[in-house]
Design a protein that fits this description.
Blueprint lengths: L20 E9 L5 H19 L33 E6 L6 E2 L2 E2 L31 E7 L2 H15 L3 E9 L1 E2 L28 H7 L15 E10 L1 H5 L3 H8 L36 H5 L10 E2 L2 E7 L5 E11 L2 H14 L6 E11 L15
Helix pairs in contact: 1-2
The chain binds protoporphyrin IX containing FE (HEM).
Length: about 375
């Protein structure tokens, strides 16, 4: 079974080949928590994350070797399961740096990167505050859902009294590839997703577009990134009543192979200038891939790492389903620029609604013997 190191220059779970399953959680620090509590929590989380990503249970005695008269240190549901490619990625939300009623919550106000502020309101947003934002986030990805859930469960348990779960999201199928070694998966509209994504094998693009550089502003964040999460509800039923040619026109690629409508195969670059009959462009002006493409956005790219979700159904018998969009970028501005373009013009908007949103600064990787986020303090 695959295992990825927890310690390193960058946190795992970003350029790591996207695993099949996700459990994402956002936390709020408790009202009484101090700066020392926050630091202790990050230290405790680091020790536990290092153990779990290595396929071990947490604590000195784990799930079943501890004293009979105490609750086990590890909750136990991953006993006997391998690491399953587990990665655990931590992030800091804007509110962690906030000053409330004149008090600097954790003495971090002066350390807030200028760009770490809530994303702007986009046209069409219908955000639920209860499933948005948060002081801290943890992204757990694994190839086994039980392993991802075990990680979030144990990290939440460790946080008890210091931080509590604000919202969380399960994802059951990756909607991107982040390595050329992976095949392109499909999203719930049935289209290949991740074709033009930034891949780990493109070091220049990863450096220019994903990792915060030392001259970018907040020095403590160098080697880190910004994580944007958007819970996007997809109108499965209207989409399924839409004719194939319209579905393809909305995306700008064909459904079978994922090739651009301007021709070629999956990895052929789209040609937005190419027109067919009556000078109508082969890739429509409002097609998703045109509006999201770097040539329409001043060269901007991002590393997408989202997941499909189905959370049962609503009271009208419609699937409560969609894409839990996650992207990593060197600056939140990259997401904002592209999303503004999409929110205004994308043909896809008839079928999707953004219902949750969050932005986190993802610190660089932890060094062995230290803890995640240490550069901040
Ligand atoms: C490309 C679907 C939301 C950014 C694509 C592709 C599909 C797709 C099928 C083409 C294959 C590929 O290159 O990956 C969707 C669906 C969405 C959604 C179903 C919502 C439910 C978003 C959002 C953003 C975004 C919110 C960012 C603001 C991109 C980018 C590309 C892309 C940057 C690559 C464009 C290129 O370079 O050719 N998307 N997408 N997408 N999407 Fe989305």
């Amino acid at each position: 079974s695959t295992s990825y190191p927890f310690f390193g220059e960058h946190q795992s779970g970003i350029v790591t080949p996207a695993q099949d399953r996700l459990h994402f959680a956002a936390f709020d620090m408790s009202g009484s928590a101090t700066r020392d509590d926050l630091i202790e929590l990050l230290k405790d989380w680091t020790v536990a994350a290092a153990a779990m990503t290595a396929g071990k249970d947490i604590g000195d005695f784990g799930a079943v070797s501890g004293p009979y008269d105490a609750p086990p240190e590890d909750t136990g549901e991953a006993l006997g399961l391998p690491a399953s490619g587990l990665t655990i990625t931590f992030g800091f939300g804007p509110t962690l740096f906030q000053t409330t009623e004149g008090a600097d919550r954790f003495g971090l106000a002066a350390r807030r990167p200028a760009e770490l502020v809530n994303l702007p309101h986009f046209p069409g947003d219908r955000l639920n505050p209860a499933t948005s934002d948060g002081d801290l986030c943890i992204q757990a990805c694994a190839d086994d859902p039980q392993v991802a859930v075990h990680a979030i469960r144990n990290l939440s348990r460790i946080a008890f009294g210091r931080a509590s779960l604000r919202w969380s999201q399960l994802g059951f199928g990756r909607t991107s590839s982040t390595s050329t070694s992976q095949t392109t998966p499909r999203n719930l509209f049935g289209f290949k997703d991740g074709t033009a994504n930034i891949k780990a094998e493109e070091p220049t693009a990863v450096n220019d577009q994903v990792w915060v550089q030392s001259g970018d502003g907040a020095g403590w964040l160098a080697g880190g990134s910004y994580l944007v999460a958007r819970r996007i509800r997809m109108g499965i039923e209207p989409w399924d009543r839409t004719i194939l040619s319209e579905q393809e026109a909305v995306i700008g690629r064909n459904k079978g192979e994922g090739a651009p409508l301007s021709g070629g195969t999956e990895f052929t670059e789209p040609d937005f200038a190419l027109s067919g009959r009556e000078n109508i462009p082969l890739i429509a002006e409002n097609a998703h891939v045109r509006l999201a493409h770097p040539t329409q956005n001043a060269g901007i790219r991002m590393l997408r790492r989202g997941y499909n979700f189905v959370d049962g159904n609503d009271e009208l018998g419609r699937l409560n389903a969609g894409l839990f969009f996650i992207s990593f970028q060197r600056s939140p501005h990259q997401f904002t620029e592209v999303q503004l373009n999409l929110a205004r013009h994308d043909a896809l908007n008839e079928y999707i609604t953004h219902v949750g949103s969050a932005l986190f600064a993802v610190p660089p990787g932890a060094t062995r013997g230290s803890y995640v986020g240490a550069t901040l303090f």
